Amino acid sequence: MSATGYSLLGFVTWALLLLMWMEILRTHLVVSGRVPANAFAPDNAGLSPFLQRLARAHANCIEGLPIFGGLMALAMMSSRASITDPLAYWLLGARLVQSAIHLTSTSPTAVKARFSAFAGQMAIGLYWAIKLLIS
Q1: Contact, 35 vs 41, CB < 8 A?
Q2: Residue 82 and residue 5: Cα distance in Å, rounded?
Q3: SS3 label, residue 43
Q4: Residue 40 three-state SS
Q5: In this structure, are residues 47 and 35 in contact, taking their beta carbons and an 8 Å threshold?
Q6: Exposed, middle or buried by CB within 10 Å (0-12, 13-18, 19+), for 57?
Q7: What gap in Å lies between CA 68 and CA 132, rounded to an integer?
Q8: What is the pLDDT of residues 48-76, one digit of tens each?
Q9: What is the pTM of this model?
Q10: CA–CA distance, 106 with 112 (Å, rounded to integer)
Q11: Residue 75 and residue 53: Cα distance in Å, rounded?
C-alpha cells in the first residue's frame, strides 16, 4: 500500500477511534445512571467540556474526510498516488495534531495552534487538488 493508502486508512481509523472513545464514555454515563440513553445531543451539550471537545474533534474529522480522503482516494483510483504520497503522512500528522490540541485545550494559544494544523491540511489539500487537475 502507498503512503496515500496508509494515510487514508489512518485518517479513517482515527475518526473511528474518536467515535469509539466518545461512545465508551457515553455508555459509562448511561450505565452509571447519570444520563438517560435518549438524552445525548450530537455535540454533547450539557456534558463535560472534554466530552464536548471530543464530539467536536470527531465532527472535524468527519467534516474533513470527504475532502482530504476524497483527494487521496481519487489519487489512488486514478493511479496518481505519486502526487499525494509525498505529503500524505504530513496531512495525517496535521490531523492528529489538530485533534490532540482540540482534546486538550481551548486556550487562545491552543486554538491558534489547532488552526495552524488545519491550515496545513487545507494547503496540502489545495496543492493536491491543483496537481490532480493539471496532471
Answers
A1: no
A2: 11
A3: coil
A4: coil
A5: yes
A6: buried
A7: 13
A8: 999 999 999 999 999 999 999 999 999 99
A9: 0.91
A10: 9
A11: 32
Answer yes or no: is pLDDT of 27 > 90. Answer: yes
Looking at 1-135, list the stretches that DSSP marks H as alpha helix, in order from N- to C-terminal side: 3-31, 49-64, 70-77, 81-104, 108-134
Which cell numbers hold the place of 69?
480522503
DSSP state of 35: S
At 117, the amino acid letter reads: A
pLDDT digits (tens, 9 = 90+) for 4-16: 999 999 999 999 9
Instruction: Report yes or no: 7 and 95 within 8 Å, Cβ to Cβ.
Output: no
Cell of 31: 450505565
Report how far residue 12's alpha carbon sits from residue 62's, in angstroms, rounded to the nearest whole number.
9
Inter-residue contact 79 to 36 (CB < 8 Å):
no
Query: Smallest Cα–Cα separation from 62: which of 42, 80, 40, 81?
Result: 42
Q: Note the residue count of the chain.
A: 135
Only one residue has cell 467534516, namely 63
